[in-house]
């Protein structure tokens, strides 16, 4: 734990990317192999289930510090991070008889600890907290809370591991993909010498597009680009290897069992095929809305009724492996040609498979592209994708070859009604906001009805201004939440909108965020709930 805590201290106190990469690389060169595996797991969001409820950690920390619960909660709201709060308030002992605890030993205890009684869990935690330094206690508690954001992306972690091992960064990115278990795999098996049989289920690292901010004319001739709609579903890779089918989401979650209708592709597709595409709801033979797809998300068991009501298809737009060969380095034109050949072979069988190809649009001018983009919402797409014809399939988000030209978002002017403190570096500011729109109640009076929450879109200077105003205009407090005087109007942008029985407003929005602060408007000039509902397609 000492070595990993020291690493976290270096990462936490350094703002330079190169220094962070150097610290990680040195750690990967010197740490025990078992700790390296768990460190890779933590930084790529793979952790065992949380063994202790965080409310218990709060109670035990307050008890050990000798402070009342209300003081702990007030401290937590100011600090903004539970592990940091506990690390600060728990008193340290200068001498301890506890043996040093490694990160692999700590996380290795989690499965057994989860089965312990509450008293046994408490004894385990209190045995270790006092004998640790601040950063050791912070790391130890952070592992228990389940979240571990320390400003290191998986891309930076992979770059550091590449420097430490001398293995190509893109090859490492591929080796670290998939559903590996840090408790069951060694550093040698994962990084240095992975066995071929362990690779057959692995997806390739996803290639991500950048948003197009300039006019499309800045990209040159339209003939250099393949254009298609940006489908509003779940990005996925479908793999058929060794007569087995695997379906991976972009978040590296194995979701094969959630979409059993795709299993028919195991025999239909040739062995050694990897397709990149979008999982889409497909009721009545047409693309449905993302709201339809949400009913299928996260289900471990899918009923026949749900499969019938909301069937899904994979709309493929790239072929990454062809006849067992990795073809990502080939031009996009070549990969699309092979994808078409593959799907033509399926269509020739006369059978109806839950797989089709994203249409390549024939658009000779950028004005034609603009007109097609304007038709996106009626096709249940988010806009257009622009992909350079000669582009290889790369790793991660790279500028230049893939662009997403999304539709302008929906917008509505809403009133700020509630606020909550942020987290981490924003824990001393009220930055998480709730917004409302006007609606007529049963008495025929206008009242504000909550419809969305948002916490991004303002500058740091604007956040400080709003925070100062909130502290002076609080009407009521509900734990960390404050009710404020309805006064400020903000333009809220969002990507999608649909009817919802789960929300008081009757409307659900996707990805709401603050577009601008409307200082020119009074709260009475904000939009109504009926205005919002008129935006529903």
Q: Extract low-pLDDT stretches.
A: none
For the record, the CATH class of the largest domain is: Alpha Beta
Percentage of residues in strands: 15-25%
Structural class: alpha+beta
Number of domain modules: 3
Report the helical percentage.
25-40%
Taken from the alpha-carbon principal axes, the silhouette is globular
Gyration radius, to the nearest Å? 26 Å
Summary, kept brief:
With 537 residues, the chain is of the alpha+beta class. It is built from 19 helices and 21 strands. It has three domains: 2-145, Orthogonal Bundle (DNA ligase i, domain 1); 207-406, 2-Layer Sandwich (D-amino Acid Aminotransferase, Chain A, domain 1); 410-533, Beta Barrel (OB fold (Dihydrolipoamide Acetyltransferase, E2P)), CATH 2.40.50.
Index terms:
seven-stranded antiparallel beta sheet, 3 domains, D-amino Acid Aminotransferase, Chain A, domain 1, OB fold (Dihydrolipoamide Acetyltransferase, E2P), 19 helices, alpha+beta, 23% strand, 537 residues, DNA ligase i, domain 1, six-stranded mixed beta sheet, nucleotide-binding
Q: Could you please describe the fold and organization of this structure?
A:
It is built from 19 helices and 21 strands. It is α+β, with helices and mostly antiparallel strands and 537 residues long. It folds into 3 domains: 2-145, DNA ligase, ATP-dependent, N-terminal domain (DNA ligase i, domain 1, Orthogonal Bundle); 207-406, DNA ligase/mRNA capping enzyme (D-amino Acid Aminotransferase, Chain A, domain 1), CATH 3.30.470; 410-533, Nucleic acid-binding proteins (OB fold (Dihydrolipoamide Acetyltransferase, E2P)). The strands form 5 sheets. Strands 13, 14, 15, 16, 17, 18 and 21 form a 7-stranded antiparallel β-sheet that branches. Strands 4, 5, 6, 7, 8 and 9 form a 6-stranded mixed β-sheet that branches. The chain is globular and about 75 Å long.
């Amino acid at each position: 734990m000492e070595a990993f805590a020291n690493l976290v201290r270096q990462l936490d106190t350094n703002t330079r990317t190169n220094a962070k990469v150097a610290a990680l690389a040195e750690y990967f060169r010197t740490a025990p192999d078992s700790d390296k595996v768990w460190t890779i797991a933590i930084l790529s969001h793979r952790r065992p289930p949380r063994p202790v409820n965080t409310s218990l950690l709060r109670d035990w920390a307050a008890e050990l510090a000798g402070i009342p619960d209300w003081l702990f909660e007030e401290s937590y709201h100011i600090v903004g991070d539970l592990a940091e709060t506990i690390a600060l308030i728990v008193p340290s002992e200068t001498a301890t008889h506890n043996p040093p605890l490694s990160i692999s030993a700590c996380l290795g205890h989690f499965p057994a600890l989860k089965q312990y009684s509450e008293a046994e869990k408490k004894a385990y935690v209190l045995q270790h907290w006092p004998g640790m330094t601040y950063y050791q206690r912070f790391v130890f508690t952070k592992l228990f809370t389940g979240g571990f954001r320390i400003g290191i992306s998986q891309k930076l972690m992979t770059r550091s591991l590449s420097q430490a091992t001398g293995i190509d960064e893109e090859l490492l990115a591929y080796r670290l993909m998939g559903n590996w278990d840090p408790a069951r795999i060694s550093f040698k098996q994962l990084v240095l010498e992975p066995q071929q049989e362990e690779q057959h289920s692995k997806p390739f690292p996803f290639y991500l597009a950048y948003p197009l901010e300039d006019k499309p004319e800045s990209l040159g001739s339209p003939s250099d680009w393949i254009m298609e709609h940006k489908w509003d579903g779940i990005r996925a890779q479908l793999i058929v290897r060794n007569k087995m089918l695997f379906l991976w989401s972009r978040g590296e979650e194995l979701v094969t069992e959630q979409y059993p209708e795709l299993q028919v592709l195991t025999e239909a597709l040739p062995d050694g095929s990897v397709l990149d595409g979008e999982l889409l709801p497909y009721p009545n033979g047409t693309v449905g809305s993302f709201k339809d797809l949400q009913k299928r998300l996260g289900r471990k068991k899918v009923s026949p009724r749900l499969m019938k009501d909301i069937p899904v298809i994979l709309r493929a737009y790239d072929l990454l492996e062809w006849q067992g060969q990795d073809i990502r380095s080939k031009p996009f034109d070549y990969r699309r040609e092979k994808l078409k050949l593959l799907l033509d072979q399926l269509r020739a069988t006369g059978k109806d498979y839950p797989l089709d190809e994203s249409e390549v649009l024939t658009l000779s001018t950028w004005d034609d592209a603009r007109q097609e983009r304007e038709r996106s919402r009626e096709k249940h797409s988010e806009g257009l994708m622009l992909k350079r014809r000669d582009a290889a399939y790369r790793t991660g988000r790279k500028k230049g070859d893939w662009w997403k030209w999304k539709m302008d978002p929906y917008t509505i002017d809403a009133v700020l009604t509630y606020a909550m403190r942020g987290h981490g570096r924003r824990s001393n500011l009220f930055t998480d906001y709730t917004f409302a729109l006007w609606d007529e109640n049963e008495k025929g009076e206008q009242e504000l009805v909550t419809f969305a929450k948002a916490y991004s879109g303002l500058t740091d200077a604007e956040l400080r201004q709003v925070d100062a105003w909130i502290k002076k205009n609080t009407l009521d407090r509900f734990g960390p939440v404050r009710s404020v005087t309805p006064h400020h109007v903000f333009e809220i942008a969002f990507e999608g909108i649909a009817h919802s029985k789960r929300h008081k407003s009757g409307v659900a929005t996707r990805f709401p965020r603050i577009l601008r602060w409307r200082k020119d408007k009074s709260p009475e000039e904000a939009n109504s709930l009926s205005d919002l509902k008129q935006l529903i397609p």
